[in-house]
Amino acid sequence: RGLTMLWTGGFPITGLGDTFGHLGTGALLGMPLPVWIMTALTGLFVIVTTRTRFGRHLYAVGGNERAARLTGLNVPRIKLAVYTLGGALAGVAGLIVTARLDSAQPNAGLGYELDSIAAVVIGGTSLSGGRGSVLGTVLGCLIIGVLNNGMILTAVPTFYQMLAKGTLLILAVLLAEYRL
Hints:
two-stranded antiparallel ribbon
C-alpha cells in the first residue's frame, strides 16, 4: 500500500480505457461479466477442493498441519500454493473493482479485511482449520454484501456498520465454537 501511495502520490489513476472498463461493466448473455468470472472461479475451486488430491491435501493441512506433515505431505509447498492462489484471486478482484470504477484508487480495498474474514466465518469455515467450503464462503460473501448494501441504503453511519459486522463476526465464531 505504501509503495502504491508513493507511486501515485495518493491520487487515483483514471482513464483506463473502454476495453478495460468492459471487464467490470460489460455483460454477456444479459449477465454482468464480474458475475460470470465469479461463477467460473467458484465452479473451478469447488472442483479443485472436492475432487482433487490437492483439495484433500489442503483440508489435511488446514485440519492438522503436524499430522499432514507426518503423513508425508509437503506442507510448506501446499501453503505456498494456497497463498499464491489467494494473491492471484485478490488480483482478479482488484482488476474487476478497478474496471468497474474506471479508476485505480491507491486506498481501494481498505477495510475489506473484516468483510473477508466475516464472510468466510459466516460461510462455515472454522478459524481453527480443517472445515469449510467454497460454496459456504460464497454464501457468506452474499450475506455480507446484502448486509453492507442494506446498511448503506438505510444510511447507517459507518461506525455502526463496522460495529454490526464485528458483532456478526463474533456471533458467527461463537456459534461455530458452540457447534463443535
